[in-house]
UniProtKB/TrEMBL annotation, chain A:
Keywords: Signal. This is Molybdopterin-dependent oxidoreductase. Residues 1-19 form the signal peptide. Residues 26-141 form the Oxidoreductase molybdopterin-binding domain.
From TrEMBL, chain B:
The lineage of its organism: Bacteria, Pseudomonadati, Bacteroidota, Chitinophagia, Chitinophagales. Heme c 1 binds at C71, C74, H75. Binds 2 heme groups per subunit. It comes from the Bacteria. This is Methylamine utilization protein MauG.
Length: 162, 348
């Protein structure tokens, strides 16, 4: 019986195994240009470094691309276009483990706030550690780092329509 | 005398029901504290007749290649729709590679299976029905077999407006029935509704479940809720929980192809958890004590271990007992004996 089980597992593995994929962040929803950002794309974009007080209580420097920059590349309504009904749009950030966090677009926009939220791929000159990287959202200035979510895979922009 | 007359009238009405009749919609209900993040596809509204058909199909052995097995063979109501086995056998006797999952509160599950590969209950149902080592029968053959059985034409007409029996309608009806499997009457639910006073041990268990250990504040906790959610004791998450240094089953990595998903599996819902042994995707733990021991002191570090399980909990014996008391609070006896979810063939 056990042998059958292992055979079954081998079959399953053989049938459904997927080729190794390169990690990426997909930007979709209310965009004019859907994006799939690979590590090399982020390295070529405008970058900045911000500080985050992590769960260990210490400040850590993270480097990456401002979320606003990503939204602008995707053709999301930012800056002067972030007005009227566009203020009811939100960004849903989805992570590899299924975790999701949400921001109103105004929370991320330099015309509303000085806080710069980034999609980080580096800390202290090193790639992010396994379990947190390759892409982590870094949200400075919050009392707890629950929205600084690990292993980001998707950034989805939608209207709140209720 | 009146009852037989009414039954006869109902039979006549059923036989004469015109095609295109719209089935009566059902509004499912649940406690407010479950939240409304439910997944109800617009293309398959839940109806009275759809649920009734789905329930019958759930227990219908003609849907297997041997006519000996139904969904309920592995998903037994008394065990919160599991079967107590480490690996369930398919119609051909071959064991499944993973442990049978419990069926309850599926409205809140967006990604079905241990690896999350199905995005709806409709999509999910196709696999156990048709997989070679599960029920092992194509949906076309299943539909043809149902055509030849009494009552099914009428039941499909009532549920979907016409006599047509198709694989698509089979999985839709099954999904409708599964959406009604709402478990919300455990002692923990009753506590949340202000109807039950927990024992000291249960109360301590609740605190441990939600709290984290913090030496600065002097608090003790097991941090279970970080992944096992709030009042539903479920969150739609995938984690590697440190079972092996080199996971034999790649889990979610098989679906995403991402190295960081190696050995990641869906975080199990905890409702009725005391009824669903053995535990983990491979059923390696025979009881809840072993599960608690694992998280307390046996989590194995590996390259994709959840960042939330990096430190051993090192729970005391009393803390383990308290957590166990809490987990037993999650048993919903009414759910596992609810006649609405039972085998309709037993009533024939």
């Amino acid at each position: 019986m056990i042998r059958n089980c292992f055979l079954g597992l081998l079959l399953l593995t053989g049938m459904t195994a997927m080729a190794q994929q390169k990690p990426a962040v997909k930007v979709s929803g209310e965009v004019t240009r859907p994006l799939t950002l690979y590590p090399e794309n982020l390295r070529q974009m405008k970058r900045t470094t911000v500080s985050l007080k992590d769960r260990d209580g210490n400040d850590h420097a993270y480097t990456g691309v401002p979320v606003q920059e990503i939204l602008e590349q995707a053709g999301v309504t930012t800056g002067k276009a972030l007005r009227g009904e566009n203020l009811s749009k939100y960004l849903l950030v989805r992570c590899a483990d299924g975790y999701e966090v949400l921001f109103s677009l105004a929370e991320l926009d330099s015309s509303f706030t000085d806080r710069v939220v980034i999609l980080a791929d580096e800390s202290g000159g090193q790639p992010l550690p396994a379990g947190k990287g390759p892409f982590r959202l870094v949200v400075p200035g919050e009392k707890k780092p629950a929205r600084s979510s690990f292993q980001v895979t998707d950034m989805i922009i939608r209207f709140a329509k209720d | 005398m009146i009852l037989p007359g009414l039954l006869l009238l109902m039979v006549i009405m059923t036989a004469q029901m015109p095609a295109g009749r719209v089935p009566a919609p059902v509004t499912l209900s649940w406690p407010d504290y479950f939240g409304n993040r439910v997944f109800l596809p617009a293309g398959n509204p839940v109806t009275e007749d759809g649920i009734a058909l789905g329930r019958r199909l759930f227990y219908e052995k003609a849907l297997s290649s041997t006519d000996q097995m139904s969904c309920a063979t592995c998903h037994q109501q008394a065990k919160a729709f599991t079967d107590g086995k480490r690996f369930s056998a398919g119609a051909d006797g071959v064991l499944q590679p993973r442990n049978t999952m419990s069926l309850a509160n599926l409205l809140w599950v967006r990604q079905l299976f241990w690896d999350g590969r199905a995005g709806s209950l409709e999509e999910q149902a196709v696999t156990p029905l048709t997989a070679l080592h599960e029920m092992g029968q194509s949906l076309v053959v299943s539909a043809a077999k149902l055509q030849k059985l009494p009552r099914y034409r009428a039941l499909f007409r009532r549920a979907f407006g016409s006599d047509s029996i198709t694989g698509d309608r089979i999985v839709k009806a099954l999904a409708q029935f599964e959406r009604t499997l709402i478990s919300a009457n455990s002692r923990y639910d009753q506590y949340l509704q202000g109807k039950y006073q927990p024992s000291v041990s249960e109360s301590n268990g609740i605190t441990l479940f939600y709290a984290n250990t913090d030496p600065v504040r002097g608090t003790r906790g097991a941090g279970c809720a970080h992944c096992h959610g709030g009042p539903k004791t479920y969150s739609d998450l995938f984690h590697n929980n440190g079972l092996d240094s080199l996971p034999a089953d790649a889990g979610r990595q098989q679906i995403t192809g991402q190295a960081y998903d190696k050995g990641r599996f869906r975080v199990a819902a905890l409702c009725n958890i005391a009824l669903t042994a053995p535990y983990m995707h491979d059923g390696r733990f025979p009881d809840l004590e072993s599960v608690i021991d694992h998280y307390s002191e046996h989590v194995i570090h590996n390259e994709t271990l959840s960042p939330f399980l990096q430190q051993p909990l090192l729970l005391t014996k009393q803390e383990k007992n308290d957590l166990l008391a809490f987990l037993h609070m999650l048993t919903d006896s009414a759910f596992v004996t609810d006649p609405r979810f039972s085998n309709p063939f037993n009533n024939n």
